[in-house]
Specification:
The chain is α+β, with helices and mostly antiparallel strands. The chain has helices at residues 14-30, 60-68, 71-74, and strands at 2-9, 35-42, 48-56, 78-85, 90-91, 94-95. The strands form two sheets. Strands 2-3-1-4 form a four-stranded antiparallel sheet, covered by helices on one side. A two-stranded antiparallel sheet has the order 5-6. A hairpin with a 2-residue loop joins strand 5 (90-91) and strand 6 (94-95).
Length: 99
Amino acid sequence: MPFIILAYDKPGAERLRADLRPRHLAYLAARQDQMLAGGAVLDDDGKAIGGMIIVDTEDRAAAERFVGDDPFSTGGLFGSVQILPWRRSFFDRQRVSGL
């Protein structure tokens, strides 16, 4: 079942985000087979303030491990994280049949 991981940075953590970003991207690249989508969450000025990833995992515990092992998480960037189950209705600009 897919899960949405929605994480917001701690206030004032721009430098920490920049420092951790290369390790974060390498972590995601090594696990891209588990991801349906992902990217930065931006404020109205276009500044990254968090991230959103949709992982296709067996259960919530796997989604928790996915975000918990991310260098952004282990490095202390995130102020809050939500993990929400997701049911596809539309995907890649198309209606998912049978739902």
